[in-house]
Amino acid sequence: MQVLSVVVTVIAALLAAVGVLFVVAGIKDVLRATRTRRWPTAPGTIRSAEEFERRLPAPPMAEPRVFYEAVIEYEYTVGRVLVGTTALRVDPAAYTNPEHAQSILRRYPPGQAVRVAYNPADPTDAVLEPGAHAPSFVRLGVGLGLVALGACMPLVARWFAARL
């Protein structure tokens, strides 16, 4: 029984450690996304808007996983320099439902004038939708879940051991 307790504790510690790494990366993601709200903006134009479909390989006898992404190509001018890019947000936005990508494409038809938020330290780093969005919190949420799981595992193991 003592060996099982040590194994559970080691596994819990590893889960918590990986969780802490995810939490740190998640906080960085959220802070970077939030920082984009303070970036200066420049007028821009949508050059093209297309749906990109990515199929991930599947195990034998299973359907491949398909992700849809709205790829918006736009250009903007900072000072006298014309810059072009495709970043919609800081965090990637690929969806399993094609309607999500289609809704983004409808918001950005080619030729439309837009405001582009750009990084003043690197004007080629820009986004159309500044701020933190749901995908910005994914790593933070996964990390908090892993830390909680790592913290609860020994408690649950002790509870079960007391019932045996």
Task: Please give a structural write-up.
- Residues 43-133 form the DUF3592 domain.
- The chain crosses the membrane at residues 6-27, 140-161.
- This is DUF3592 domain-containing protein.
- This protein is α+β, with helices and mostly antiparallel strands.
- It folds into two domains: 1-38 and 132-164; 40-129, no CATH class.
- The protein is 43% helix and 30% strand.
- The chain contains three helices and six strands; from the N terminus they run H-E-E-E-E-H-E-E-H.
- The chain has helices spanning 2-35, 98-107, 138-163; strands at residues 41-56, 65-78, 81-85, 94-95, 113-119, 122-127.
- Strands 1, 2, 3, 4, 5 and 6 form a six-stranded antiparallel beta sheet that branches.
- Strand 5 and strand 6 (122-127) form a beta hairpin.
- Helix 1 packs antiparallel against helix 3 (138-163).
- The N and C termini lie close together (11 Å).
- The model has no long low-confidence stretch (mean pLDDT 86).
What distance lies between the first and last C-alpha atoms, to the nearest angstrom?
11 Å
Please mark out the parts with pLDDT under 50 across 5 or more consecutive residues, or reply none.
Answer: none
Q: What best-fitting shape do the alpha-carbon axes yield?
A: elongated
Tally the beta strands: 6
User: What integer is the average pLDDT?
Assistant: 86
Strand proportion: 25-35%
Query: How would you spell out the order of helices and strands?
Result: HEEEEHEEH
Helix fraction, binned, reads 40-55%
Task: Quickly count the domains.
Answer: 2
Derived from helix and strand composition plus strand pairing, the structural class reads: alpha+beta
Please give the radius of gyration in angstroms: 22 Å
The main β sheet shows up as: 6 strands, antiparallel
The total count of helices amounts to 3
Domain DUF3592: 43-133
Keywords: Membrane, Transmembrane, Transmembrane helix
Pfam families: DUF3592
Protein name: DUF3592 domain-containing protein
